[in-house]
Fold this sequence. Notes:
Layout: E1 5-14, E2 17-27, E3 32-36, H1 43-50, E4 58-63, E5 66-67, H2 73-80, E6 83-86, H3 98-109, H4 114-127, H5 143-155, E7 161-165, H6 173-190, E8 193-197, H7 201-206, E9 210-215, E10 218-224, H8 225-229, H9 234-241, H10 256-265, H11 289-301, H12 307-319
Parallel strand pairs: 3-8, 3-9, 6-7, 7-8
Antiparallel strand pairs: 1-2, 1-4, 4-5, 9-10
Amino acid sequence: MGIEVVVEGLTKAFGPQVIWRDVTLTLPAGEVSVLLGPSGTGKTVFLKSLIGLLKPEEGRVLIDGVDMVNDPDRRVYEARKRFGLMFQDGALFGSLTLYDNIAFPLREHTRKKEAEIRRIVLERMEMVGLTGAERKLPGQLSGGMRKRAGLARALVLDPEIILCDEPDSGLDPVRTAHLSQLLIDVNARIDATMLIVTHNIEIASTVPDNIGMLYRRDVIAFGPREALLTSDEPAVAQFLHGDVRGPIGMSEEKDAALLAAEAAARPPARRTIAIPPQLRPTPGSPPRQGEFRHALRVDEMFPRLSPQAQRAILANRQEGTGHGAH
């Protein structure tokens, strides 16, 4: 089962440039979360900070009692083995076959015999639909296959936490839909805590239990999927609708004078986003335990959510399997 990731007061800067400050959120154990945000808001930097590859100036990242920011390198290195990382480009070694790419973490970090490595690699390749492609080189693969190979490699060490950095980049809508379903199926099978960094609204609206959004050096929202997708916070609404009007500009935030002029000229229409049902595991997959735990958490916070979020949650449950008390 996945483990909880607790982020407290995290601040990261490169010289005088603050990337984000005082970020606090909790990734619930075994649930799927998405972190949205405009380009250049430091989403990848956030992932690297979670696993201790970058050291924030302030704050803590707690993984089962280990602080990935402040603890000694030896403890951080050990805790890092509990993560699986799916990189944006697959990060495969071009000169190694697919099999050897996926086997690499096992050979590097364990003392398993080759027969055991073979069993694990073939099992993970089957899990992501790559059976029969063992001898192919990365250059012979489509973008979608490289993504799945990257996911298979992230899974070989039985991670309790999986971080996916823009898994949809370079994929067409059909391959993105296949990948979205694959991520849900993997979560159902291994119950790992998952964080997906993306700016793809399709993934954000159909895959996760929870969504957060990085903007203006802060996480301006983190909570149940329906709460963010029905939010009337201006930056969130602008991002979800891909609207030029709103606080997000081409290179950075717009200043107050420009926003006021925009509003006077043509105020943004109040629009609602149609919230699709959350993806559920492919028939034949085990039930997703994170979904049950998420439903119980949402039941507790339900009275504090906005009326539109409450309606969206009830609608999703009616279309699904009716988890939860409401």
